[in-house]
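Could you show me some protein's one-letter sequence and the numbers that encode its backbone in two labelled lines?

___
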Amino acid sequence: MFFSVLVTVLSMFLAEPSEACTNLIVGKKASVDGSVICTYNCDGFGFSGSLGFYRPGRHESGEMIALRGGWGPNTEIHYIPQVEYTYGVAGLMNEKQVSIVETTWDGRKELQNREGWLDYFTLMNLALQRAATAREAIAVMHSLAQEYGYNSTGESFAICDKDEAWFMEMIGKGPGKKGAVWVAMRLPDDCITAYANSSRIRQFPQTKKVDKKLGFCVVEGECMYSADVISLAREKGYYDGPDKDFSFREAYGPLDWGAIRYCDARVWSFFRHHYDKEAMDEYLPYLNGDLSKHDALPLWIKPDAPVSYRDIQNDMRDHYEGTALDMTADVSAGPWASPYRNQPVNFEGSDGTKMFRERPIGCQQSGMTMVCRMRSWLPDAVGGICYFNLDDASMVAYVPVYCGINRVPEPFRRENNNVREFSTGSAFWMCNFVANMVYPRYSVMIGDLREAQTEVEDFYEKDQEEVDERAAKMTAGELSDYVTAKTAAYTDRMMKRWDKLARLLIVKHNDQIMLPSKDGELVPGRHTSPAYSPAFIDAVHDQTGDRYERKEVSR
């Protein structure tokens, strides 16, 4: 008997699962070029990421794989049979351009089955290695959960390929019960949607028949769901109405303040970028807890105009700028109009008042970020691109990683990204090095970072035009080596530019002044002393009265 080990991407560097992630999803007719897009900000304090990578391979009969079905080094290992062929995976996209990303919402915690062998990330990685399409990945995830048990809490998955985008919500059945209840819906090709740590599927298309071959219900081209998704809710006392009115969200992930303001607000902001702003602002009372007019956001919207992958990259950097929730526009943003907050999401004032801070899409605790772009008109090896980096999406340049690579660039390798050991050869640490200089003096320094970010990402976009043209003329072997070399070169370019940026920031902004620069280089000229933000100045004046008002000398 043969054994191999499946190590999930997150279990390499997380003591426990991340529970604060964001996914944006774009159908092929909603994108500028016909690509399907999904994204992932993997958020959680205190961990460093790396680029997950599995080589494709054929496997002998009787070969087994070891699963560490949980989080941390002390979780129990279980063995399951390997399949005949596993697809290669780079990041969270396989060689067939299937991508799976996630966001956790917990839901009914009594439904967690800790005896299950599969946590959500193990389930994702197994599906990526075993599925050639999004629909096949959903079927694989169902069958694996049924056979080996699911031990995570409520989870949403974006499951996409080069033709379709699906989103799936799943939760366990409780202690002693294998499998999971779930609903998966296909995103209309001309629409966009998002997920941010809350269940969002309410009513869904239903059928009275179970597909005997698959073992679950299928409404062709629209919806798939576990056969017992409603009956379990009845059994547990979560629902007692007619089947047609059943809401997955209300049964398994009911709303509370956090699900609305910390989670749905991120979806709202994304929609607002690509839809009528006045129409979306009608949901502001809902975001403030008033459900009298609206009790949910739309599940998806048709954008006002097709969106590009560059648009989506910038959406991943959102802090509610320009909205009623703008994190840069009041005194809590500090003297340098920062969208970042150091206090916990929930805290108390000195008088015991319960308070909160906004939770945006872009945040300092991201361990890794990616924008997955699947293009059906190109060979898979070059058509699938995972734009990737380690740290906050707002603070990094997205590096194109082709799904056909045969090795990981050195700065993205796990062993080069130790969370407890700084290294200039680590993408995680170079990105954090720069970000942590920018955070304290955001409005003064962010321009330098945006300049470098735009420069690098503009280069990648332009260079990919030539890559696409050359790829069409190559054999499979040539193409794999070519996209691997390109990915390594792109990563190297980012690392060198970030090293240059770090050196510029420390010199240009030394002692809290600002020297003039152009195109990332210092130029001759006098330094300036940047002013505090107007909101902060006004707040200081309101609190201190005339203490800091300049006065004429009286004699």
